Input
Amino acid sequence: MTSTQFVSRLERNHAAKTPEQRDAILSDPGFGNHFTDHMFLAEWTPDTGWSDARVVPYGPLSIDPATAVLHYGQEIFEGLKAYVHEDGSIWLFRPDANAARMQRSARRLALPELPVDWFLGSIRELVSADRDWVPAGEEKSLYLRPFMFASEVFLGVRPSQHVTYSVIASPAGAYFAGGVRAVSIWLSSEYSRAGAGGTGAAKCGGNYAASLLPQQEATANGCAQVAFLDSTEHKWVEELGGMNLYFVRSDGTIVTPELSGSILEGITRDSIMTIARDLGHTVIERRVSIDEWREGTADGSITEVFACGTAAVVTPIGSLEWDGGEAVSGDGEAGKVTTDIRSALVDIQYGRVTDRHGWMSKVV
Ligand SMILES: *Cc1c(COP(=O)(O)O)cnc(C)c1O
Output
């Protein structure tokens, strides 16, 4: 079934927040706490394909207890941001890359692929309806969360014959209020995030569910996040629970773990390859062993380590910790290469420099 052309209807929220209520939220939004006045919804069945695209008042979904996603976790999601530029226009960063990744995730989870024009249309319609919710100001943005789930009421185990796609939006403050700070990362020795042949390369809720117990362990050890190794040899560095990793070497090269099939292909990771080359670095994708991380930070051949993803952009990693040891990168604070790459990326997203790679897409 090929889906029909994207046409969306708008049902305005008559109980929308007042400008005063909205401004109070936008002055200090935090992350993931507040949601805009509207949400996007569309439905899929094998017979109709994608249909019923609509922007409606934000509110609870009514879910039958036998809805498949509640039992078997057939669900995928995306994450991207809308940014206000100096002239008040609103822009997205590489939304076509999110659309393509959502199709890849859908294939792995046996969900129907959402056509690219439906994905881009859904974002555009929601951001246009809620344009007053995109916060202006230093590193503020509107975080967009497209997601798709098995909405068939059926307990049999098979790909759902009814699927719902939705987009919600949440104003986001600067991730690092008061300056970018280096974090400590816990090395998980017992758990893996994903395994060979599994769903690690798909952006699905189940991967996050698997990361929560090791994340608790990290928190108990005073660390912000978990670093995961490959599940077969427990030797190769993969990524954090929701961010990819980069290593800056003393010879000026920058290394990121090559895609293994269980690493999520981040759009920030991909963009940084280009930005780092623009800044004159050689970027290499290859396997990085946990011994290289430990020994490299000890002997100075690795000078900086950072994590990257849409939510926090670039996060410096001051130290890797494990039972009985730690590997401190540089002086344990944000390094110069990390900071320069972060600034270069954020400057593009906020329209402060020329968008040389055609990454920005204007909404309104
Ligand atoms: C979303 C995600 C990332 C980062 O991807 P971006 O496209 O850069 O936001 C990295 N790792 C995992 C596991 C993720 O889910």
Remarks:
- The radius of gyration is 21 Å.
